[in-house]
Amino acid sequence: MPGRAALVRGWRRLRRRRWYGEGPLHLVLMLGSLALTGYAGVRLLAGGRWPLVVVWFVGAALLHDLVLLPLYACADRAVVRCTAGTARHRPWTAFVRVPAALSGLLLLVWFPLIAYAAGGRWAVHYEAATGLPAGVFLGRWLLITAGLFAGSALWLLCRTVQPRRAVGRLRRRRRATKQRAADGD
């Protein structure tokens, strides 16, 4: 039977959990994350650039909700329809969704530099700020996208070949076992 001190500690822990809902480590991590976000927000909004940040956030929300969401929902439905006749349509769909989502995220993040790679306003600003060339983003994004889809296709191939090999090994073992049993009779 636990002592009084253990019961008091347990009661305090329970009260803390009821007050916050999680453990103390989660609270510390959340406060640290909030502090880091606040610092980034202060740095981002410094220098009178806050109207551009507001326009960017509103534009990103509208672009996502009105253009990108219907676009990738239609693309996802097309993939599901194309693979619906196969027995493995669900895993095959995931092998297209993941690289497409990662490629789309990279495109969304680096769109100004990808779209205006040939000396546009964003590219000139990027080159002036970093000293790095901006004309390489389209080619690199295409290579990364091709690599993501190739890696996904390779992973799918490994996943489909491996069970077939296991079934073949199992059949060979059964045949060998039956052959030994027949030879022993």
Characterise the protein shown here.
The chain has 185 residues and is mainly alpha-helical. The protein contains six helices and no strands. The longest helix is centred in the last third of the chain and has 48 residues, at 137-184. The N and C termini lie far apart (64 Å). The model has no long low-confidence stretch (mean pLDDT 79).
Notable characteristics:
85% helix, mainly alpha, single chain, 185 residues
How would you sum up the major sheet? none
Compute the CA-based radius of gyration. 28 Å
User: What is the N-to-C order of secondary-structure elements (H for helix, E for strand)?
Assistant: HHHHHH
Mean pLDDT: 79
Strands, helices and their partners?
Layout: H1 4-20, H2 24-45, H3 50-83, H4 89-115, H5 121-130, H6 137-184
